[in-house]
Amino acid sequence: MSQPPSTSLKTGYAEVIGDPISHSKSPAIHGFWLEKLDIDADYRAAHVTPDGLADYFARRKRDPDWRGCNITIPHKEAALDHVEDRGELRASIGAINTVLRDEDGALIGTNTDAAGFYAPISGMDLEGASVAVIGAGGAARAVLFALKRAGVAQVALLNRTPLKAAGLLTAFGLQGQALPLDAPLPPAALLVNASPLGMSGQPPLPLDLDPLPADALVYDLVYAPLETDLLATARKRNLATVDGLEMLIGQAAVAFELFFGEPAPRDDDAELREILIR
Ligand code: NAP
């Protein structure tokens, strides 16, 4: 029989698992918030290989001090095989990034990426809007999930493999066009880069932003570098921008509250961002 979780959420530990894992910024983010809130719990990085995933969950399930975990590459899809998928995420986002244990000891998978992506733009009225998204991988799936819920009308989905983009539009029941990366941008209220293009060590993302209206917002999920060429070009045109740290911190904040039962102290974001870009 599984052991019940210990009564206080403010002790014990949560962790992030991946392979590799040493690059993860999650311990710095959660550790910063635990310290700010004076919570006597820990957040660690754990190196878990694909072969070790089943054993990891079996052991943690029995550990009363374990509050849950975040999941990064390459386990975001495979982890679904080890948890209850109560939000039917396999059929939508297709991946989980957080696992919790409920009061009966069951492991529950959830995904905080879509909420983390949406939080910085929640003030935008996207109902009926036309948007453009670049990429058709895991990050794009979380973005499309959030945009569908926000009621967008048209999505131009630009991707190296347009066929994959077309499949995603259908999967999410979204109207729009699947386009190659060199297609001209359509006018769009929001442009999101959900591809690795523009990231350090990756090819650039040469886009002509002229078709975007003056009140468009440009959102780059890439956070290394923080000021991508895409964001620099958008700022030169005086377009509003959101950088990748916003989503990174946002998805972590949702998970933090689930793990430790207290909202993350978001008033300290400026200090946290300084730590993360060091
Ligand atoms: P992914 O699954 O590896 O992304 C694959 C997508 O990128 C596909 O659309 C792929 O095109 C395209 N792509 C990859 N390499 C390419 C290349 N050399 N040229 C053209 N297209 C290429 O990664 P992901 O998990 O979706 O993440 C995408 C980006 O978002 C990463 O930079 C990641 O760091 C960032 N991200 C940020 C956050 C955050 O919190 N800020 C969260 C998640 C992800 P094909 O379909 O043609 O293969």
Descriptive notes:
By secondary structure, this protein is an alpha/beta fold. The chain has 2 domains: 6-111 and 248-276, Rossmann fold (3-Layer(aba) Sandwich); 115-242, Rossmann fold. Helices cover 29% and strands 18% of the residues. The chain contains 8 helices and 11 strands. The chain has a 6-stranded parallel β-sheet, with helices on both faces. Strands 2-1-3-4-5 form a 5-stranded mixed β-sheet, with helices on both faces. Strand 7, helix 5 (162-171) and strand 8 (176-179) form a beta-alpha-beta unit. Helix 1 crosses helix 7 (244-260). Residues 1-7 have low confidence and may be disordered. It binds NADP nicotinamide-adenine-dinucleotide phosphate (NAP). Residues 113, 135-140, 159-161, 164, 194-197, 199, 203, 221-223, 244, 247-248, 251 line the site of NADP nicotinamide-adenine-dinucleotide phosphate.
Bound compounds: NADP nicotinamide-adenine-dinucleotide phosphate
Instruction: Briefly note the structural class of the backbone.
Output: alpha/beta
Largest sheet: 6 strands, parallel
Instruction: Please tell me the CATH architecture of the largest domain by its name.
Output: 3-Layer(aba) Sandwich
Q: Would you state the CATH class of the largest domain? A: Alpha Beta
Question: What is the element string, with H for helices and E for strands?
Answer: EHEHEEEHEHEHEEEHEHH
Portion in helices: 25-40%
> Whole-number average pLDDT?
95
Strand order of the largest sheet: 8-7-6-9-10-11
- Distance separating the two termini: 45 Å
- Could you say which overall geometry the principal axes of the C-alpha atoms support? globular
CATH topology of the largest domain: Rossmann fold
